[in-house]
Specification:
Length: 278
């Protein structure tokens, strides 16, 4: 067997090449801007790992990168503007060795961002106030996008004799609970609940039949849903929202009512006009 010996000179050359390559490798620094603290500090992840830090900017230093090559990093901000809304905002950034890159995650991307609003029920007496504001009567069809346990449908149908209630909820557990409650209250034949996403126009088909919308969904989802509602609702339909506005819609009336629990509740009313339909 022949052995190839690398002499001292060869060893030095190999070592120098190694050092040169290592010197060519450099990290990139990514400055990430995120929404300021809401209910909780925004969490930032790069390729799944949390970037430790607080406040509006976080700095991530990549591992050493080979010169001339482009690398993609997945950045994700987990934003909690309040205690019931979670927004996941994913983005990607391409960097090269030595870059000082910036990425802004403060603005919404309707296609990429995911918004989850958890169930928080509207108290029964506030549902009654909303029904009063909408002047619900026996000919009305009520629609609740994000209906939870369907209190906003069961109550007007049972207590005010409204013709029908239509609700959708993204959470199958809430859909099951709403159906059980409608049955227990004896209005299952008039309250139709389905699983659906308020951001999906097909799932929102009930809005086209509605004369009244009662809603409690949060600013972020409300803003995203409002163009779909605007498109589907008939002129003359009344919309009453518990607390939150619907994007840039300007309410016809805003009232504050005292709840049985002693808290103040803000309610907004809109009536769909012909010119608002797009
Ligand atoms: C604040 S709760 C309001 C429940 C009910 N309308 C009330 O006022 O008692 C919001 C509900 O919307 C549902 N929801 C959240 N995101 C949704 C989406 N994209 N599509 C449909 N429902 C959604 C939640 O599961 C929750 O039940």
């Amino acid at each position: 067997m022949r052995t190839v010996r690398v002499g001292a000179v060869g060893f030095v050359v190999v070592a120098l090449i190694g050092v040169a390559c290592a010197q060519d490798k450099k990290p990139a620094v990514i400055t990430i801007t995120v929404p300021e603290r809401g209910y909780k500090e925004t969490v930032v992840k790069v390729d799944g790992d949390e970037v430790i830090g607080t406040g509006a900017t976080r700095t991530f230093t990549t591992p050493a990168l080979e010169a001339g090559k482009e690398y993609t990093f997945k950045i994700e901000a987990l934003i909690e503007p309040n205690n019931y809304t979670k927004i996941t905002r994913p983005r990607e950034i391409k960097v090269k060795a030595g870059d000082a890159a910036k990425i802004d995650l403060t603005t919404e991307d309707k296609k990429l961002d995911k918004i989850v609003v958890r169930w928080v029920p509207t108290p029964v007496d506030i549902v009654d106030e909303m029904a009063k504001l909408a002047k619900i009567g026996k000919d009305d069809v009520i629609f609740d996008p994000g209906c939870g346990d369907a209190v906003m449908l069961i109550r007007p149908v049972k207590e005010l004799g409204a013709k029908k209630g239509i609700g959708i909820d993204i959470d199958p557990k809430m859909v099951a609970e709403a159906k059980t409650k409608a049955k227990a209250e004896g209005v299952a034949d008039k309250v139709v609940i389905t699983e659906g996403d308020i951001l999906n126009e097909k799932d929102m088909a009930g809005a086209a039949e509605a004369t009244v919308v009662l809603v409690y969904i949060g600013d972020d989802l409300g803003a995203r849903m409002s163009p779909v509602l605007q498109k589907l609702l008939k002129p003359g339909a009344r919309v009453v929202s518990h607390r939150f506005k619907l994007g840039d819609w300007k309410p016809d009336r805003t009232v504050t009512v005292k709840g049985a629990d002693g808290d103040d509740y803000v309610l907004h009313l809109w009536t769909v006009k012909e010119k608002e339909k797009k």
